[in-house]
Amino acid sequence: MTGIKELQTLLANVDPVLDERSFFFCTFPELNNDDICRLNPIGFFHEKEGLTLIITKQQAVDSHINYESVYSLISLNVHSSLDAVGLTAAFSAKLAEKNISANVVAAYYHDHIFVPEEKATQALMAIHELQ
Questions:
Q1: Angle at 50 between CA 88 and CA 56, to 5 degrees
Q2: How far apart, in whole angstroms, are the C-alpha atoms of residue 21 and residue 55?
Q3: What is the pLDDT of residue 29?
Q4: Cβ distance 79 to 108 under 8 Å?
Q5: Which residues contact 93 (CB under 8 A, 6 or more apart)?
Q6: Ranges of H-type helices in the chain
Q7: Radius of gyration over every alpha carbon of the chain, rounded to an integer in angstroms
Q8: Distance CA 108, CA 9 (A)
Q9: Is the model's pTM score more than 0.90?
Q10: What is the DSSP code (8-state) at residue 119?
Q11: For 86, which DSSP code?
């Protein structure tokens, strides 16, 4: 099934869902595959400064990893195409209007937005306004 490209269709069907877990972004200059598997990240990205992992707050606590900010995850259940234009801009603008930071991960089927945990409910309501 091909993802949706048309912005109005995406916005009408955005269907945001708040994950019940709390997340943390951490970085390591080097990490071996065993450590990555042990931390079981929901996502990771290689940057020139190191490897960024997105792990649950509980994984960070259990692994004695310090963290600064805790995030909630809102997943958009609409199947957006990676070639869609304007979806990220639309929800980013709406969240910025409400003074909510957004860290976005676009995966193959869905967009995922990490927002400060204390603003998760407000962010979810803001995204619903796009519909």
A1: 60
A2: 10
A3: 86
A4: no
A5: none
A6: 7-12, 33-39, 57-62, 87-97, 120-129
A7: 16
A8: 18
A9: yes
A10: G
A11: S
Counted residue by residue, the chain has a size of 131
User: Which residue carries 């909510």 as its tokens?
Assistant: 100
> Residue 25 — φ and ψ, nearest 5°?
-95, 130
**Closest to 15 (Cα-Cα) out of 90, 103, 94, 110:** 110
Q: 55: exposed, middle or buried (C-beta count within 10 Å: 0-12, 13-18, 19+)?
A: buried
Structure tokens, 52: 């960024």
Amino acid at 99: N
Predicted confidence (pLDDT) per residue in 49-107, tens digit = 999 999 999 999 999 998 889 999 999 999 999 999 999 999 999 999 999 999 999 99
